[in-house]
Design brief:
globular, three-stranded mixed β-sheet, single chain, about 110 residues, about 40% helix, transmembrane helix, alpha+beta
Length: about 110
């Protein structure tokens, strides 16, 4: 579904609309740069995100983006995180869904 397909009206619930913009450059106003895996810290990937969605879902992100010492950078490096686990945390914050496995459950829980 492309941006010009009126996704705002075709997707009926706020959860569906939030899930649609998850990990999507559209409307994003921050990027998290994280290693692809904890063992492979030299290779990184940028994950687009939306400050409002993250702040709406998490008091930590609310303080990070809108608190007294709010982060002003639009590119935030998280060298101690791994991409796949952070992606699952963000999937949950955007859509109330998460895909956990034996390899990511501890990291996702730690990030929360």
């Amino acid at each position: 579904m492309a941006a010009e397909d009126n996704w705002q009206t075709k997707l009926q619930t706020i959860v569906e609309r939030s899930a649609f913009i998850f990990n999507n450059e559209m409307l994003s106003d921050v990027k998290f740069v994280v290693p692809l895996s904890s063992a492979e810290s030299k290779s990184t990937k940028a994950m687009p995100a939306h400050k409002f969605v993250l702040a709406f879902s998490s008091p930590v992100f609310f303080a990070m983006f809108y608190g007294q010492m709010a982060e002003t950078k639009d590119c935030i490096e998280l060298p101690d995180c791994d991409y796949d686990s952070l992606l699952e945390l963000f999937r949950f914050l955007y859509s109330d869904e998460v895909t956990l496995s034996g390899s990511n459950v501890m990291q996702v829980m730690y990030y929360t």
